[in-house]
Amino acid sequence: MSSQVAVVPGILPLVLETPMSGPRPQHRRARPLDTDVLASGVGPARLQSPRGNLAAAPRDRADLPSTALRTEAAPPRDGTVRWVATDWDHPDALALRRRMDAELRPRYAPFDAERAGRRAGPPNAREIAVTWLAYERAGPLATASLRLLHRSDGADLYEVKRVYVHDEHRGRGLARAALDAVETSARALGVARLFLQTGKLQPEAIGLYERQGWRRIPCYPPYDTDPFGVCYGKRL
Description:
Blueprint: E1 17-19, E2 80-86, H1 91-108, H2 112-115, E3 128-136, E4 139-149, E5 157-165, H3 174-188, E6 193-199, H4 203-211, E7 215-217, E8 229-235
Parallel strand pairs: 5-6
Antiparallel strand pairs: 1-2, 2-3, 3-4, 4-5, 6-8, 7-8
């Protein structure tokens, strides 16, 4: 059974424990990098909440949803995946993002000179509305975050950041579940359209997004100066 996200009308989704027993899907061929990996930066029910206006979106972490809507990870039961909504600087999220960086760095290293001064900086923790973490008895499996991007042109928008699945747990639908979790959190905030950025050397991420209904768009600031940037949008 694939991972899903529990939702509570009017607030961010919190935690769902989902049995993961049974054989994995047979149509996915094993390869060194599966489709559940290396997005930049997981389908729950649609919330009954009003659509917000992005022009009136909160501009500061203090205006984003309260950390009371998040929960620290509890030890998951055997045979389950537990999704936990937490903060950007949670140690397990940080560890997974570092692992992601270590996988991606060799791909882009030959082009560092070409990209120098043209890449966007990392998110500011105050911009992150929620970070999702997946747990099983072995520890953290996957992560993804929802960011409010403050653009220099004043057109703030919400985007998916840092979708990553631990290399030992790919092929289980965790990347799709991570995207669904972030999309559900965005709907809870009244977001009508969501955005994301990935890289040309990440075909696994590109394939995942396109299968999940994301549409390629021109790169928006601050990614429009990176020659390796690829951007997507999706209506919720």
